[in-house]
Amino acid sequence: MDFQIVYQLVLATFLGALIGLEREYKKKGAGLQTYSLVCLGSCLFTIIAFSIVSVYSDYSKMVFDPIRVIQAIVMGIGFIGAGVIFQQSSGIVGLTTAAGLWAVSAIGTAVGMKFFSLSAFATFLVLLVLSGMGILEKKVFNRS
Fold it and tell me: Rounded to two decimals, what is the model's pTM?
């Protein structure tokens, strides 16, 4: 197995876990395992998609667009996100979880495409939004 691929998979799992830890700390349903798996899965699908292009490049009649796999990742994560959004008498819950899973999927895709700095910075921004903006909402808008 290629060390580069192992590194990408481990990095994606780790970055997803960082965000998942924040969700675990806030006692949310989707946490460490969910965020790690979504990030890992998105990375793996991206690696496979771009590897297929190089493996089958000798077949002149075969046309394969790896961008379609990224589109499929986005659509698939949309189904997962839709499954975590619920309307209750107190309001809609799960929107932040759905958005977080969507963002972590993008991070996994970025790792799969070897955009390591971008994925690390995006992880930082997601953590900033989930932790810092929550504090800001509580103080400025008096939300519990």
Answer: 0.88
